[in-house]
Amino acid sequence: MQEEEKLDPQTRRVVIALVFGSSLPLLDISIVNVAIHSIGEAFNAPIVLAQWVITGYGLASTMAIPLSGWATRRFGAKNLWITALAVFTIASILCAVSTHIDMLIAFRILQGFAAGFSVAVMQTLIVTNAGKDQATRAITAIGLPAVIAPAIAPLLGGLLVDAIGWRAIFLINVPIGIAAIALATHYLERTPADTAAQLDRTGYLLLAPGLLAVVYGFTTIGHMNSWTSIIVLAAGAGLIGYFVLHALRAPSPLIDVRLFAHPSFASAWATLAIASTVFYGGLFLIPLHYQGNYAYTALHAGLLLALQSVGAYFSRSASKKFIARWGTRKTVYMCIAATIIGTLPFAFPIGQATCWLILQGCGLFVRGGGIGALTVLTMSATYHGLTKDEVVHASAAGRIATQLGSALGVSVCTVLMTLTHGVGWSTFAYFTVFTTLMAATATRLPRGTVVRK
């Protein structure tokens, strides 16, 4: 590395502070999945109820993202970051001491809301604390946990669940959270607060409950009166539709829906949302498959799940070469094909034969490679052809697609489990069919590399 490419001492300290804080939600997204089976057994709760420990977290994170831009301006990036970390840490303690599944779900919602703010404000902190000369290197360094965390989280979660119990997966956040708060207080620069910052309250009061109603209505299909689920779904769709009308008229909308008039953006956003659903759905479904059908321990399930992250690491490293040779659209279709091929070994009625389990392990590696690169490529493609002013709204919309996918992924798998009466080969067969939807949404992605105006 050349001298001019190295981070200066102050920026290095900023990166360390932000890495501690960013690792909390990154670990938490994956670590709970291997514990959901144990949590359901501990509270004698069916999967359709226990899954809200994950779905509620994802939805709460989604609800926080549209507020993050206003909150950053209103309270300052450093204040918001520290507050979010403190709330996340306290919520982790409350999750660990929960005595009922409803309590755990409520505290997970609080935890997810805090995580949504911390993820959204991090890039602002990088730019304001690192400066133009160091920002790119700092972003690269802070991006390292995003690659490492998904690989170690299932292993760490499995180890903690088997050795101590499910409560340990939340207590592990406490020392990390305290360290992150201390480092942020000492090393991050305070940013000014704008007390005159305006929030699109009407837009938020339409979008937030609309998304919640859609996910809740979809999740409860098959478990509640069908008409109740349909009414909730219709109400959510109506609120989102009204939000679109409001956003088209508002001078400063929560999300600029005019972005969807760009074919490449609409295609990339839809593909990103489905890819995130497929990714997080797999993190939920695969551990249940091994723990429920093969009586694997949480650690063994975590070891197998980590194969996906290893595949994602290698594919993300190689994706730039593929784009340079074949362009964005062809590379995305290659990734979709890899994701489907990697899921197929689970979609056949084969018993616990050693050779078939090895094939499933190879499938997880291939699946991780496909879906890992796919999320990165489609996130990048949302910025294709956009102006500098549009990029801000595109960034928020992209984060919403990712977080919404984390909630919908569990919901989709829960519905499939209801249809197939458990987690079996037919569940994965339907899941594979759902994955193929990306082939339709990706048709308008840019053929070449992503270009910004």
Automatic annotation (TrEMBL):
Transmembrane annotation, as ranges: 14-36, 48-68, 80-99, 105-126, 138-158, 164-184, 204-221, 227-245, 266-288, 294-314, 335-359, 365-386, 398-419
Subcellular localization(s) per the UniProt record: Cell membrane
PROSITE patterns: MFS
Cross-referenced Pfam families: MFS_1
Residues of the Major facilitator superfamily (MFS) profile domain: 14-450
Membrane topology per record: Multi-pass membrane protein
Protein known as: DHA2 family efflux MFS transporter permease subunit
